[in-house]
Design a protein that fits this description.
Layout lengths: L3 E2 L9 H10 L5 E5 L4 E5 L5 E7 L2 E5 L2 E5 L4 E4 L5 E5 L5 E7 L7
Amino acid sequence: MSYLTRQKFSVPIDRDQVAQDWRRRGYSCDVFTDPPGREWNGFVHATNELVTVVAGTLRLIIDKEDIIAAPGDEVFIPKEIRHSVKNISSSATHWLLLGMTESGTR
C-alpha cells in the first residue's frame, strides 16, 4: 500500500485549504509543532489519520515502511496500524494531523 502522496498540497501550505479538503473527506484538522528530534513512537489508533507537513521534515514508520514527508506531502495512516513519527529537521517542524471516526467525525 502507498501511504505517501507527494506534493498533495502546494507550498506554502494554506491550512484552510487543507482543512477544507480533509473535511470533504470526513476528517478534522489539528496543528502540531515539534522541536528537532521529537518522536511519537508505537501508536495504534482506532481511526484512520492523515498527516501533512507545513514546514520541516518528518520521518514516519507505518507498518515497518519508512517514509520521509516534506512540506505539501500527505501521509495516510490506516486505523489499527502501528506507526511512529519523528521530526528529523534541525528546527521545529509544523504539521497538520487529522483523524476520522467510523461516523466520519473526530
